[in-house]
Amino acid sequence: MKNILITGGAGFIGSHVVRRFVQNYPNYHIYNLDALTYAGNLENIKDIENESNYTFVKGDIVDESFINELFAKYNFEGVLHLAAESHVDRSIEDPLSFVKTNVIGTMNLLNAARKLWKDNMEGKRFYHISTDEVYGSLGAEGLFTETTSYDPNSPYSASKASSDHFVRAYGETYGLPYVLTNCSNNYGPFHFPEKLIPLFINNIINNKPLPVYGDGNYTRDWLFVKDHAIAIDLVFHEGKNHETYNIGGFNEWKNIDLVKLLCKVMDEKLGRSEGESSKLITYVKDRPGHDLRYAIDASKINTELGWKPTVTFEEGLEQTIDWYLSNTDWLNNVTSGEYANYYKKQYN
Ligand code: NAD
Ligand code: DAU
């Protein structure tokens, strides 16, 4: 039995990764470390909470002594690090909390792994899950590759870029066996409704305005979250040490086109007449430092590890909408309490 640490496993992507690892690897004991911030929710992993190869640990990666004790106690052989502050708009309001979790928290994990593995790095692996936002913004043409220079524009992407640099530096300086991936925008079940797709699904259900930033002509490359979890599994097991892999959906959408598609599908699902939900579209003040376009060249992970998305955007979006429509309790629970304050402040 190998002890494997997954951080941030009560969040959106982390919950899919934890579920996949607990179900597919009975020879691993999965420790899910999560601080349960506003974005962390044990409901996201309720279906696997009683599995014998699974343990939830509540704790903060910023707490250095706690992290050191945890590593000493469980002697982890692998780490998949997803815990982060992940929302760009929140990073504009409160950059320091992003530095604490995304930079200092990552440093604490790197130091603990380095200490624990210093005499024998054989078979050990530190996997840092990162974002395409570290590359900054593309113009109308081109794709991000693994050699694109870092050029982050938001406090969130700057904090993720910083953590990526530290991971690489620990590989070069101390020989830490790491792998790193930079992924595009995910969507799917358990996505917190502060992000575009779940926010707009929730607002359409509740007949609330759909706040499109700026002119809506910003482009993102969308990937179904379960395909990201498959890629993470593959890179953890078959990726080469000290390598970076870009992960993306080969699926670019301008925000406004995506929102119109979402409105159309929601009209069908809710039995509304065509065009009803799109009347909710409201152009609002732009996000400061808004990156124009992200698009990933995922050919390295495709040719070297054989990964490609298994779900088309139309299928993934429909599955996602169906999930939200049949999990209104989940949606209502996460939008109660603190969410209302956030929403009021962000959208006035
Ligand atoms: P999320 O915000 O849904 O979840 C983050 C999780 O981390 C939550 O469960 C939260 O409780 C936990 N957490 C936050 N601070 C913590 C701390 N100090 N200690 C312990 N746990 C803490 O995020 P997500 O969208 O699932 O993203 C997961 C990772 O993937 C992040 O590192 C993010 O940068 C990266 N990523 C996300 C996307 C995306 O589209 N969502 C795309 C590419 C990369
Ligand atoms: O690219 C990967 C990144 O994708 C991840 O690293 C981040 O953790 C994740 O949050 C996501 O970042 P984005 O900023 O691209 O996602 P978000 O859902 O916040 O916004 C998507 C696009 O929609 C972006 O161009 C901003 C726009 N938007 C967003 C919101 C919340 C709106 O127009 N209105 C909104 O209310």
TrEMBL record:
One GO MF term on file is: dTDP-glucose 4,6-dehydratase activity
Keywords from UniProt, A to Z, are: Lyase, NAD
Q: Does the keyword NAD apply?
A: yes
Q: Which cofactor does it need?
A: NAD(+)
Task: Report the top EC class in one word.
Answer: lyase
The chain positions of domain NAD(P)-binding read 5-320
Return the EC number: 4.2.1.46
Recorded hits in SUPFAM superfamilies, A to Z, give: NAD(P)-binding Rossmann-fold domains
Report whether NAD shows up as a keyword of the record: yes
Q: Output the InterPro entries linked to this UniProt entry.
A: dTDP_Gluc_deHydtase (IPR005888), NAD(P)-bd_dom (IPR016040), NAD(P)-bd_dom_sf (IPR036291)
Mention one GO biological process in which this protein takes part, according to its record: nucleotide-sugar metabolic process
Its UniProt entry gives the catalysed reaction(s) as: dTDP-alpha-D-glucose = dTDP-4-dehydro-6-deoxy-alpha-D-glucose + H2O
Pfam families recorded: GDP_Man_Dehyd (PF16363)
What does the sequence similarity comment in the record state about its family?
Belongs to the NAD(P)-dependent epimerase/dehydratase family. dTDP-glucose dehydratase subfamily.
- Output this protein's name: dTDP-glucose 4,6-dehydratase
Give the organism's phylogenetic lineage.
Bacteria, Pseudomonadati, Bacteroidota, Flavobacteriia, Flavobacteriales
